[in-house]
UniProtKB/TrEMBL annotation:
All copies of domain EF-hand, residue ranges: 28-63
Taxonomic lineage of the native organism: Eukaryota, Sar, Alveolata, Ciliophora, Postciliodesmatophora
The protein, known as: EF-hand domain-containing protein
Region of interest (Disordered), ranges: 1-24
Biased composition (Basic and acidic residues): 13-24
Single GO MF descriptor: calcium ion binding
Protein's organism: Stentor coeruleus
Gene3D superfamilies documented for this protein: EF-hand
InterPro entries reported in the protein's UniProt record: EF-hand-dom_pair (IPR011992), EF_hand_dom (IPR002048)
Length: 86
């Protein structure tokens, strides 16, 4: 995701805990998340653009079932317009 300067948000540089270091987090889980990330990264550029995610969520009908998640991505788009990396 990007900040107001337009850089891409990189979870590795975030102050949030590294999910790979969270107890009970398995390598298999990381692999599955990366596979899901790659599905949403339709351009194959290592960045999921928020519009790509919003479109995918709409196809999965998340916008109807989980409105708060759908709204979260709309808010992320404002803060991080270029997207999110794995």
């Amino acid at each position: 995701m990007t900040n107001k300067r337009g850089s891409v948000y990189n979870p590795a540089k975030s102050k949030d805990p590294d999910p790979a270091k969270i107890p009970d987090f398995k390598e298999k889980d990381l692999k599955e998340m990366k596979e899901a990330f790659d599905i949403f990264d339709r351009k194959g550029n290592g960045i999921i653009e928020i519009d790509e995610m919003i479109e995918a969520l709409a196809v999965l009908k998340v916008d109807e079932k989980y409105r708060s998640i759908f709204n979260l991505f709309h808010n992320l788009k404002k803060k991080f317009p270029k997207g999110v990396t794995f």
